Every structure is written in C-alpha cells, then in structure tokens.
Amino acid sequence: MDLLTTGVKREREKYTVEIKSSLLWESALGIAAITNTSLISTLDLSEKDYELISQSLSKNMKEQLDYVQANNTWKTLLQILHQEDFKDLASFNNYVKSLSSIELKWIAIPYLGKEGEILKKELLKGSKDALRELKYITKDHTFLPTYLEFIHKVSIEKLKAHLIEVMSGWFKAIIEPHKVKLESILLRDKALKEKMLKNFEPDQFVEWATDGVQYPPEPSVHKVLLIPHYIYRPWNVEADLEGVKVFYYAVANESISDKSKFVPNKLLVQRFKALGDENRLKILKMIKENNVTLQELTTKLQLGKTTVHHHLKILKSARLVSQSLNEYVLVDKAIENLPMELKFYLESE
What we know:
Radius of gyration: 23 Å
Protein name: Winged helix-turn-helix transcriptional regulator
Domain HTH arsR-type: 260-349
Pfam families: HTH_5 (PF01022)
Largest sheet: 4 strands, mixed
Number of helices: 18
Keywords: DNA-binding, Transcription, Transcription regulation
GO molecular function: DNA binding; DNA-binding transcription factor activity
C-alpha cells in the first residue's frame, strides 16, 4: 500500500561521536572489572595476570575492593570522571575532597531521565518517598536500587575517603608499573578510531568501534562518548548521562601491539572467514532476496538443519546477518562497509 505523507519531512535523528581516553578511566574500569564476580572469569586476563594483580594489592586495598563489590562504588568513580577532564590522580583526588555532601551525592546518582532528575533533588533533601520512587523506576536493574539506597545513607566523609583510597591504591599498584604500555595502547586505539570516524555515519561507526553494539539515534541523545579500556576486555560497558550515551569499549586487538599496522581488526577477519564458504554465500544471497527462516533455508539448500544453523551462527558472529523473531535478515551496512574496512586496514600506517 502506498503511503500518503501529509506532514513536514523531518531529517533523520543523528548524534555526534566523541572519543576520550585516560589512565584514570582505565583505573576506574579496572576496579569495576576486578570486583564484578559474575564476569571476572570471562575477562581476557590469564591466571598469571590475576596472580600479579593479587600480589600487588595491599591488605587495605583488598578491603577497599570488598567495599566496592558490596556497594558498587566503581559507579561513583566513573560518574566523577565525567565531571572534568582530570590531568592526573592528584587533580582527581583534590576534586573529590572539594565536593560538598550534596554535590557528591548528586554526581554519584546516574542520569535516570527527566522524572529521575526531579526525584534526585527530592532525595537529596532527605525524601524517603523519592528514594522509594527511584528504586521502583530502577527495579529491573541489577544493582541500581541498592546503590541508590547506599548513596542516600552513606557518610559522605567515609565515601570520600574510600573513593580516594581505592582509586589511588589501584592506580599506584596496577596502573603506574605499566603506565607507558597502557597509555600507548589507549592512545593507539583512540587514534585508530578517530582516523576511521570520518568514513562512517555515527551509528555505523559506533557498531564498528564497539565490535557490534547497535545504537541507532534517539531524540534524547545528541552525543555518544566512546572511552577505550584494556582491562575489561572483551566487554563493553554502557552508561547514560543527560543527552549523552557512554560506551566504555574494549580496545581492538590491533591496538595492543606497537606493530599494530600489521594486525587486522578481529571483526574484519571474522567477516572474510564467514564469506569464504560457498554455502554461506548462498545463504546471504537467499536472505538478500527475502528474509527467511531456518526451515526455509534448510529446504532450499537441501542441507541438514544442524549444518545450516552452524553456517548462520558464523554469519551472525560476523555481524553479517541478524535475527528478527524466526527470520534471518541481512545486515546491509556490514556488507556495504566491507570494502572500506579492508581499504582502511591495507592503507593504515
């Protein structure tokens, strides 16, 4: 059926992309990673890495990390880091010391939408009703309800002392001994991403930079902030600021080595491997002509369902195909961008 348009034509929503990096972000994200017990076994860290981290931490630091794990104060550290571009650990610590009780608690509570901002103001005046409402708004979140209650009740001097001790302790024990290496990795990745940014639409770039996160434009967000990290690999962590979506993303493999120009992007390799098979190419062409189900593909290809499912899994891992309910859909942008991604790799210095 044809569509009769009677309204004013509106331009597609867009956002800008900004990339920031610093060892302070790496420190805070390291604290977040090492205290996330549900994900710690999945991190790209060897047993030797874990041993070295454990041996480097004092008894007091281990107690501080227990406090982080119990109260999710890594979130407070990240919230503070969004307030200014701190030059070093000393400027971060001085900033924390300078904050009043109201200022620190306001910063510590993440952006929860317009309604949440109103409730935050009431909460900071001591309203238990506001706390109850905020906990209800965030009831489906893994830790925010208990985190909000913690921030509401905590002694501000105790919180300040903890934030300074845990950030300083981690930075001095884990970051400083590897400062040159870590800073080089983060800066290499930032430079790589900034060079590629001009070649993509913002949402395409975010998907490429984060190795697959799809974040289409939305009216309330005017900027996406990308912050690279090394220790939390392979995970992306997301957060919300007012008008800003934040992705703390895992640095690419090619950024880890100083011979990075010879190391291809992991997703680029996956995509060309996925395309290097006759049956998978057939599947792509069939999906291009019409979205299809697993059963339809099995019938058309005259292959076993297990075999076709295996091929689809490879294509999905390479982000060439997505699934919508029972149907498989071609990711057109991924196909369109392949020549550009290959060209970028071959010509990068």
